[in-house]
Amino acid sequence: MTAYVRTEDAPRLPAPANIVGWRAAIRERLFPTPLSGLASIIIGALLLWVIWTIVDWALLRAVFVAPDRTLCNVEGAGACWPVIQDKALQWVYGFYPIDQRWRVNLVYLMGAVSLAGLLIPRIPFKGWNALFFFVVYPIATFFLLLGGVFGLPYVETSQWGGLLVTLVLAVTAIVTSVPLGILLALGRRSEMPIVSLLSTIFIEVVRGVPLVLVLFMAANMFPLFMPPGVNPDKLLKAVVGMSLFASAYMAETIRGGLQAIPKGQYEASRALGLPYWKMMGLIVMPQALKIVIPGIVNNFIGLFKDTSLVTVVGIFDLLGIVQSGFNDAKWASAQTGNTGYFALAMIYWVFCFGMSRYSMYIERKLNTGHKR
Amino acid sequence: MAYDAGLAVEMRAVNKWYGQFHVLRDVNLQVKRGERIVICGPSGSGKSTMIRCINRLEEHQKGDIIVDGIPLTNNLKNIDDVRREVGMVFQHFNLFPHLTVMENCTLAPIWVRKMPKAEAEAVAMKYLTRVKIPEQAHKYPGQLSGGQQQRVAIARSLCMNPKIMLFDEPTSALDPEMIKEVLEVMVDLAQGGMTMLCVTHEMAFARQVANRVIFMDQGQIVEENEPREFFQNPKSPRTKLFLEQILH
To answer: Given this structure, which CATH class describes domain A82-366?
Structure first.
């Protein structure tokens, strides 16, 4: 056999026209075989029909300006948007006294600004910002919303409502569920039998009960554990119930991350002389939490939507306020309910989609990309 | 408990079980300061377990282990003290993937030795230079080759300024062309006078740097000798068989 040695490079040719460009992409992705082409057409048609129905209802046949229900309450009318405009402030503030709404605004503003400061990586002073958001802000919010001090009139929690209650519930439960979840997850994996047993019992009991039931029990059974005559605030009981429920779920999500950390990471930490809490805080948790970001955010999203269950114990969160508005004789029409639910769905979706996108962004950012 | 201050590690009648399985059987070992020991033996012979007992990654159930004058008992403070003095290099490197090379090296000095960050970084740079990869300091472990990662792992251990270094098959997970660069660093370390215990099958390394070679089988030390005699004139039939198999 004779030896072969290449003396000049083979030429680099442009790709042929039938594998590049949008025509090729469409053929490749939508019509690669007759059967998938047929599926593409059927699914496409269904999609068009759904979109058309929504557009027709929400825009083409919709009523945009009306003083009351008269225009909306006709045969064939679409969405009744003026009702949203009329009720929007109530959705945001609940039954909070109108002249005191600036207090809610201030809480919203402080929350939005410090949250943005925490979430946007470029903004400096993360430590101070975290201190504000996790310590100062909750305390300030408590006194600002409740009042009764510094000359602020007292506003009892039954007057709170709408988005305010939804956010108070969701943010408190989200923020407390992570540290509690971490402790419970570590506790469940602990080598100390009592700690492990108690953590496991807490997780399994709380997780094994429907959230609605947790809320009912928090509302009605909590006083049994209190000295006679003490009955904590209804909203407070719901917040505690949701936070504990969320912690149990969070613990299991985080435990999943802990189990993915190789034994060698623990051994290397111990060989370097790191004590338990430093090993966990510096080596194990940062890696474990990074792995389970999708799961954690999934819990956050679930939690955010589950706040709507508090309507069953008589708290008017966003869903409760929207529903209570349907009874208003001024706006009662065939489409009032649909319009309200549609708008509500969009509000929930915006929050949840925001969380979802942010988590994907953080995952990309934290990905050092080279697993070993 | 009396001990000899000239000894870095002393194991007296050490026994260990995994459940019913007797992994270490009456192991006696004395390692002088500055001594370099290579431990070999078939897989499952207990050689890794033995050196992992020295920094308490494994707990022994009977006998005494005294490291740098500190007896290893259930006393947590003693365990922490020993771990501070003993560095360990693992087969699979076990670098921290979420930290840069520099952070891997400075973590323990800062958090365990309470060293100021700038000083810890200077120390890290010194040892990264010694293992010949100062230019990789700001990369993540996953961006390095296996040989580079293992050299980082050695530097990371050295940053704690240990008196004793344990190597648990440091080249077994490496591609052939990377073994040499890691062995060179280990030879350099040996020539610097470090007390070393190496579990390895790199017999050329054993010949070059070891003061003593220990052969283990079935949880016992079967034979120990200085390298020339160990390789040329093994006494026990089990050692002979093992050497025949690995040296062809």
So the answer is: mainly alpha
